[in-house]
Amino acid sequence: MEQNFQHLYDMLSQVQGFIYPNELDLQWGLLIVLYPYITGLVAGAFILASLERVFNVKVLGPTYQLALLTALAFLLVATMPLVSHLGHPERFYEILMTPHSTSAMAIFGFVYLWYLMVVLLLEIWFDYRQDIVIWSKETKGFKGRIYKILTLGVTDLSPSTIKWDDKIGYFITVVGIPSAFMLHGYVGFIFGSIKANPWWSTVLMPVIFLFSAMVSGIALVLFIYMAVSFFRKQKIDMPALDSIAKFLFYILVIDFTMEGLDQIHRIYEAEESFEILFLLVHGPLFLTLFVFQIFLGTVVPLISLGTLQLYKPSEKIRKIIYLSCSLLVLFGIFFMRWNVVIGGQLFSKSFYGFTGYKLHLLGSEGFLFSIIWVIIPFFILAFLLWLLPPWKKVGQHENN
Amino acid sequence: MPPQLKRLIPLFAIFIFLFLAARSFLVPKSFGEQGHYRFNSIAENKEKAMIYAGKEACDDCHSDRIQEMETDLHKGISCETCHGPGSAHIANPDSIKPMIPKGRDFCGMCHSLNPSRSKLVHQVDLKEHNVTENCIECHNPHLPCQMKK
């Protein structure tokens, strides 16, 4: 009992002003920050891939498969931060067994499954089917056996069947775009629909989440494309890189405008919660919001990518700028999620006080454990690139 | 029909079937009986051992203390607020003793100076109010207005 009091004193020492007892402990920590972050990377990477296929942006060809595989690698771990945040992770399936229309989280499980099974896996399968069949004949041993299974027994390579691959693949991509919007708009909805929290509750939340998702996903593919080319000692396709950066710039402009709009709206409305939010962004969130998210993560990339739209320096300099911008954007969007998730829990519902958040190094909510969920996707991606190398593909989809 | 779909449609059908089959095993028996929850959980929770006993339960043996407290300002505070959960103590009064909070911080949880706290609860600055001694050296915790010294 005494040590419980000790814990209470420790917690109380990080409180400022008045808070309600249940606000003392911040329940959603780093793991819940990672959840919208990783899901956003998935949606963004997928939308970049769809640009090439549905909107016919041919220059992006070299990154189409890479973007899809990146989306898959991150999608496979997207739910893991949530599951490992549970006190009883082994019970996670229960939410899928007895869903309810009033539970936003339960429906997320189905949105996720739809996106994984019907959109991503199928799109990749249709895109690669022809190659998988060829590889399954050429490759021996274990890898060959995986290819055999992956063909699902459809080994027909007649032109009419290949045409079907193309048509159905295209159709799935078209269905996939609203699905990707749903997947991530949905994550925004989970926060935006919490009407008790003035920092979260805004109808713009799904939209903001969506655009920041696209920004981070595009930056991720930009980074991975450069990294993969570097490791494979391949020349980077500059037109592709330039146009990814161009899209990154455009979407970043929209994203920044949307978030600005949201804040202006909030400032102009100046509801009763305004004072505490003002203190929030100037106090506990100052570093992560103004410095990390807005300055480093948005303004610097906006200016440098914007300059490149008018003036093109040598390839070498451009590559350095692209690399640093993609990393800055990834860093900035991470802190955007941080500011939403952590920021929304720092102030009291009474609007009279703050609690604190200390990130621990160890423990199930700690830094070291959480970082695993960011590292694993890269290993999955490496495996996927080994299994389904885009650079060895023969079959190319026609752009319909 | 394209050969791909001939393969995929049965595969998805199997997947959905497996999901439904798993669901029929995994949904607990009493789920949905009285609403969107597992009805048996109510009976299970009722069986749980009590941890807090309530002020009335102390009356059997400490009635003098309770009557005494009625006369002073701490009367609104239940015994277990300060002494912690008491069920185990009631079952074994001689071997299990409730906690007795002695530190200054403890009284400070309700009495330390805090501008957002109601003025109805008297507050002292813990850094100034008789710092060298424990609160209970002077104040009787059960009869706070009565001074020991």
Shape of chain B: elongated
Silhouette of chain A: globular
Rg calc of chain A = 23 Å
One letter per element, helices H and strands E, the order of chain B comes to HHHHHHH
Instruction: Output the strand order for the largest sheet of chain A.
Output: 1-2
Structural class of chain A: mainly alpha
Largest sheet of chain A: 2 strands, antiparallel
Radius of gyration from the alpha-carbon trace of chain B, in angstroms: 29 Å
Give unreliable regions of chain B as ranges.
none
- CATH T-level topology of the domain at 23-240 and 354-392 in chain A: Formate dehydrogenase/DMSO reductase fold
| Overall pLDDT score of chain A | 91
Number of helical runs of chain A? 15
Beta-strand content estimate of chain B: under 5%
Q: Could you write a compact summary of the structure shown?
A:
Chain A is 71% helix and 1% strand.
Labels describing this entry:
heterodimer; A: Formate dehydrogenase/DMSO reductase fold; two-stranded antiparallel sheet; 71% helix; globular; B: mainly alpha; 47% helix
